[in-house]
Amino acid sequence: MATRVGVITFPGSLDDRDAQRAVRIAGAEPVALWHGSHDLEGVDALILPGGFSYGDYLRCGAIASLSPIMTEVVAAANSGMPVLGICNGFQMLTEAHLLEGGLIRNDHGSFICRDQVLRVENTDTSWTRDFETGENITIPLKNGEGGFIASDETLDRLEGEGRVVFRYVDVNPNGSLRDIAGISNERGNVVGLMPHPEHAVEPGFGPDTDVAMRSGVDGLAFFTSVIQRTLASV
User: Fold this and answer.
1) Looking at the predicted structure, is the pLDDT value of residue 83 above 90?
2) CA torsion angle for 101, 106, 112, 117 (degrees, to 10)?
């Protein structure tokens, strides 16, 4: 039976269909879930996609973190289900206190869209097992409020526990403290990051590489990783 990965759509989600496509390309079954539901439909993993949920009013991800389905997301995450928050989804995870820290306005004050090099710092999470520690990958980035912040104490703990999963390389695009692009919870089943792996899964539609234009597929390993994780737990 194929791994079933739920992708939750919130009012203002933009990348939910892209995430569903990435799941399908990786070999799993995408399951469309609605923010107003309390039913996770028996999925094996969850993705909170990018976009501008509820128009990013109040704070990015703040209102979405109180959506009905988030009650089930929090419970599932706490029970060990793999959960990935991408961009706006990362913001939701911090607002729901499934991940520490927060995301604020880019330090240069502008929306940014670029292909971003990341260094993989942790391959022990549900979403990174198909990477290699220290590997550089290129993933599209697009955000206006992607600056990761936390107290020095929290940052030291994240570093010390190996919970910084991705770090920006060459340039820090949004002023994130310690160049942090993505983190995990203590258990490693919940991961949030600002760049968009779902936009780097299919040749012809990904970042440019030395091989060919638009040929980058570094994001695919996120989705194959969670398939391997769920199959290993069966």
Assistant:
1) yes
2) -50
From the candidates 95, 121, 198, 199, which is the catalytic residue? 198
User: Would residue 35 show up in a list of annotated catalytic residues for this protein?
Assistant: no
Q: pLDDT digit string (tens) for 133-178?
A: 999 999 999 999 999 999 999 999 999 999 999 999 999 999 999 9
* CB-CB contact of 167 with 179 (8 Å): yes
Q: Is the pTM of this model over 0.85?
A: yes
What are residue 184's DSSP bridge partners?
191
Look up tokens 């994780």; give the residue.
Answer: 229
Q: In terms of Cα–Cα distance, which of 103, 33, 99, 100 is closest to 72? A: 33
Catalytic residue among 35, 60, 72, 87: 87
87 a catalytic residue: yes
Question: How many C-beta atoms lie closer than 10 Å to residue 1's C-beta?
Answer: 7
